[in-house]
């Protein structure tokens, strides 16, 4: 049975893809359109056959195989795809289908949104992280050097099909990275959601949990589509997390979910240091995140570089680094501008624990 989540500008459907609106769109709105499916090396092997063997409407589809990994979410790869789309004769009435994790949905959406000022696209997220976060909300983007998602546009897909069947292709570590975003949703908006998943093994996360996370994010996006106010809450853990991820792009990549988990520890500690978050709440957050996620080994030079990367965060105001911080478990506030000393002290906590 399909769970339809009202996203206003597009459809989000959770359940078996064969019961979704995908086939109806193929037969009606895109019956005369050319179609392109963007995949990476993993989804080409593990997920693509599920679509190609089930939908006759995809028999003449062009498949574009992109390299895996955040280090490939760059303009150079986009140019190669745009050139291929031009060679295929793809026009503004055609369709791009993004089948993959966060890199594919972020970059595929960006590619579709820029090409000929906008081609329709559909997201099929195949990782837990993409299902609960990257593919939902209309953010598309690519990286610029070590700066995460520095180039991008707000652009909503026609449809997001979230089929938990694809999670069977993932190992527990991949599921764990996605759970980090689910924990974030609980921390910023719902103590009930936090409590329901905080001790749950990743293999036990079910459709109800996924729907709860998507609903939290979707409701925030609906209230503030262009991130002028309320949507900034979704950045909790990401100001530090993106800087950590950017640092490791030069040193060897780190999973987004792990970087966000470390970012949430630091930003929760910053909340606690600034007397916004109680010692008891911080202790619980710290315990859960360190229990589930491996520690990063930080050196003083690394901390300085991570802080320097934060200075170019796209959310900043002037030279001040903008944070979303916690006032409780399930409660967040936006537009905090701690000093560099306060930020460094919070990062040092991560180093010393």
Record keyword descriptors for this entry.
353 residues; alpha/beta; Rossmann fold; Dehydroquinate synthase-like, alpha domain; 2 domains; seven-stranded mixed β-sheet; two-stranded antiparallel sheet; 46% helix; 16% strand; globular
Secondary-structure map with pairings?
Blueprint: E1 3-6, E2 11-14, H1 22-27, E3 35-40, H2 41-46, H3 48-52, E4 62-66, H4 75-88, E5 95-100, H5 102-114, E6 120-125, H6 128-134, E7 142-144, E8 147-151, E9 159-162, H7 172-189, H8 191-197, H9 207-223, H10 238-251, H11 256-273, H12 279-292, H13 300-310, E10 323-328, E11 331-336, H14 340-352
Helix pairs in contact: 5-6, 6-7, 6-9, 7-8, 7-9, 7-11, 10-11, 10-13, 11-12, 11-14, 13-14
